[in-house]
């Protein structure tokens, strides 16, 4: 998917000094492990990671459907541009000094095409990895992660 302009409504952008907010499904062990990997390498605080199970994060980004956030990583930059799937991964990589070359390679047209298909294959089967990867994030445990996905989809949060 290509990056798209932000829609009208609440400003959905990173908080503080972050340049990008990466939104993920905290029920997914692979997603959680990926965001932990990013956080461990983001010494400058350029990327804010948001688990959409957290009600305050879900309220802050109301235009995402539960199905969409569970299917692919979403990222929003400070200008409000939305990136989805491999494009979100690339945007995270662009902000991590040691991963800029990888991000660039993932943007090469033929490679991007294949990378997006591989990403989608993995994303569709990611929950199979949950027995091997912990899905709970320290910042989002118990009632703090009790998002009513039906209410979120209906705009009732």
Question: Biggest sheet, strands in spatial order?
Answer: 2-1-3-4
What is the string of SSEs from the N terminus onward? EHEHHEEHHHH
Low-confidence stretches: 1-10, 137-144
- Structural class label: alpha+beta
Number of helices: 7
Helix content: 25-40%
Radius of gyration: 15 Å
Average pLDDT score:
78
Distance between the termini: 27 Å
Number of domains: 1
How does the SSE layout of this entry go?
Layout: E1 20-24, H1 29-41, E2 47-51, H2 55-60, H3 66-71, E3 74-77, E4 82-84, H4 86-94, H5 100-106, H6 109-124, H7 149-153
Parallel strand pairs: 1-2
Antiparallel strand pairs: 1-3, 3-4
Helix pairs in contact: 4-5
Task: Name some characteristics of this structure.
globular; alpha+beta; 39% helix; 4-stranded mixed beta sheet; disordered N terminus; 157 residues
Give structural notes:
The protein has 157 residues and is α+β, with helices and mostly antiparallel strands. It has one domain (20-130). It has helices spanning 29-41, 55-60, 66-71, 86-94, 100-106, 109-124, 149-153, and strands spanning 20-24, 47-51, 74-77, 82-84. The chain has a four-stranded mixed β-sheet. Helix 4 packs antiparallel against helix 5. It starts with 19 loop residues before the first strand and ends with a helix. Residues 1-10 and 137-144 have low confidence and may be disordered.
